[in-house]
Structures are given as structure tokens and as C-alpha cells.
Amino acid sequence: MNRPNPSLDYPRRKDRTVTDEDWIKSLLRRAAYGVLASICDGQPYAHVNLFAYDEPAHALYWHTAAEGRLRDSIAANPRVCFCVSEMGRLLPAKTALNMSVEYASVVVFGRAVIVNDLDQAQRGLQLLLDKYFTHLKPDNDYRSVTAEELSLTTVYRLDIESWSGKRKQAEGGFPGAFFYRPPVPD
After folding, report:
1. How far apart are CA 64 and CA 152, in angstroms?
2. At 78, which CATH number?
3. Res 185 pLDDT > 70
4. Across the strands, what pairs with 49?
5. Which residues contact 7 (CB under 8 A, 6 or more apart)?
6. How many other CB atoms are found less than 10 A from the CB of residue 67?
């Protein structure tokens, strides 16, 4: 894979770096959502998105409203990064300093483009529908996206230039490890 700036796409913790591209692709396929980072008027901007990984095109797709801050930021500066992650078990320790968590993450670097080609935009949206509504079929369970509906949204494609994977996983039966449960409100 082309790595225009290797210092950006390799984690600091070499012991947690994952270079296995099949592992990275697998996390991109199964992650429920991701966070896109861009710059808008000189200000960092993070945007949570549902997305679909298009492995043959080596790209990510997502969509937003036809107008807004994200569209403006990408039109002004297409350089972005996109992060997905999964949280594993919490790992208790005898000291606060050593408390930890299992996790897996991938950061993708590249250029985002606004998809203006109607066929490609429809394909990107269909990838999203196929990922999140796997049990429903177009033109059977729902009407496919129309050109009029496409005019109400912006479809984006992130052309992947590089990526990095990172994982922390406790080996064996870690004493006291448990999965996070949100506190119950009073």
C-alpha cells in the first residue's frame, strides 16, 4: 500500500500495531460506525458516520445532508482520516496507573470526494443499505433510491491512501476482566 507519510499511519506503540491487512479489512467490514476527522475553517471537525467499506475500490462510502459543515469542509480540504474501533473487556489492576482496556482500532488516511456521478452515488448508498439492512432486498422489501432522493443527500467516497491497525488483547483468563456496563441512572 502506498504510504505518503509513514510517520502518520503507524501507531507509537509498536507492540500493539497490526499490519495484517486481512485483520484491518475485517474490522472495516464489521465496525458499526466510524468517526471522520476533517478541517472546517481552520477548526478540527469530527463527524460520526455509518459507512461501508468497498474492498474492490479500496474506499469507504458514507452520506450526509446535501448541505452542511462536512460537505463544506471536504470541498475546501479533501484530506481526512476515518477511525473505527471496538472495545473489549476492562482490565482491572492493583494500581490506577495499570488499569486498562482491550480494544481494536483502524485509522484510515486519504482523500474524500463528493460523489457527483449518479450511478456511483447510488452504488455507494446501496453498499450502506446492504451493510446495515442485510435482511432487506432492494425492489422487493423497499423501493431503491431514486434520482430525486439522491438530490437530497451528499454521497462521499474516501479513497484510502494508507491505514494503521492497533489492538490490545489480554492473553488467557485475565483475573477480574469484565465488559463495561453503563451506570444505571438514579
Report:
1. 9
2. 2.30.110.10
3. yes
4. 34
5. none
6. 9
Residue 106, all three cell numbers: 483502524
Number of domain units in the chain: 1
Comparing C-alpha atoms, which of 64, 54, 49 is closest to residue 160? 54
What is the extent of the structural domain holding 124?
Answer: 14-170
CA angle, residues 86, 88, 89, in degrees to nearest 5:
160
The reply to whether 76 falls in a domain is yes
Phi, psi of 73 (to 5 degrees): -65, -40
The answer to whether residue 7 sits within a structural domain is: no
Taking alpha carbons only, the member of 105, 142, 108 closest to residue 125 is 142
Could you give phi then psi for residue 25, rounded to 5 degrees? Answer: -60, -40
Output the CA–CA distances (angstroms, integers) from residue 90 to 59, 158, 166, 171, in the order listed: 32, 32, 17, 13
CA distance 22 to 106: 12
- The more confident residue out of 2 and 142 is 142
Query: How do residues 95-146 score in pLDDT, each as one tens digit?
Result: 999 999 999 999 999 999 999 999 999 999 999 999 999 999 999 999 999 9
pTM for this prediction: 0.88
Apex 52 CA angle, 50 and 56, nearest 5: 165
DSSP state of 138: B
In a domain, 6, yes or no: no
